[in-house]
Amino acid sequence: xxxxxxxxxxxxxxxxxxxxxxxxxxxxxxxxxxxxxxxxxxxxxxxxxxxxxxxxxxxxxxxxxxxxxxxxxxxxxxxxxxxxxxxxxxxxxxxxxxxxxxxxxxxxxxxxxxxxxxxxxxxxxxxxxxxxxxxxxxxxxxxxxxxxxxxxxxxxxxxxxxxxxxxxxxxxxxxxxxxxxxxxxxxxxxxxxxxxxxxxxxxxxxxxxxxxxxxxxxxxxxxxxxxxxxxxxxxxxxxxxxxxxxxxxxxxxxxxxxxxxxxxxxxxxxxxxxxxxxxxxxxxxxxxxxxxxxxxxxxxxxxxxxxxxxxxxxxxxxxxxxxxxxxxxxxxxxxxxxxxxxxxxxxxxxxxxxxxxxxxxxxxxxxxxxxxxxxxxxxxxxxx
Length: 384
Description:
This protein is mostly beta strands. The protein is 7% helix and 39% strand. Strand 3 and strand 4 form a beta hairpin. Mean pLDDT is 84; it is low at 1-30 and 371-384.
């Protein structure tokens, strides 16, 4: 079994103005006579296909709604609007917003808020222009997620320096969840039924907004120099690099892991078991016109909360983490088997991480081989 860890580039928390708006909208436009300037807000779901096509991108990871809230430098609300895409789910959108000039503004982006207990009754509509407390409300909000709903919550927060010219910004939304995909290959002579998959230890609550402690990460450039990047920019760079080198087993360790984040205080971590669909079987090994052909099947992807299962509990709170997977199987002789394996070099389970597990069933064991890489379309070999 080989596991591939996919970075879909998380995003939010305290964003420095370090590249928060990465390009301007054509020529600079002067401020209006009323002292306003236009922000062109391009919002994109991290990991979404850049071609504009949605092939291979699941509906639950698209935007059903998007709330844009802009705060003045003093923390009061300047702009609050909810965009509802209805049945036309989106992976990207552009919104033009007029704001007052000459201050640093916080731009909050929250997608699919109806999936968040505490926001599912339009509570955020109550923040009108001039109101205080929005940042504290969403920044401290934790909840027990139910990822069985139609849309997964996503969020981001950027700080934008607004001057006297219009500005075009590109923002990325990140899932308030981690994702697991298990792909099975069966080298046994008979079929194997997968009854359930369990992952431990997973947190019971999650924050709406991430709690990363440092807003930057260091990135070693090709020439050996190091750049200090806002951490979502860092993650985007790592994601792009991973897609160019999908078989690089050392990339995650080479680039590093996001370890400096908090999960809700007092939350209990436990094993989470995900039952298989009825009769989820992986066919046995066979020959097709003399060509060996293992059975293959893909377990339906599932989502779990961002977690922090430390290797050394009670030690460094930002130390490396360790997780375990457990398969409950039934073989062709109707004998139940249980296999547990560590997730190898999965050293953190920060939100928006996508863990892909390739499991190979041999006659008496499950083989493990770990390859971390970024979000890619799964190969047709595995039936996708």
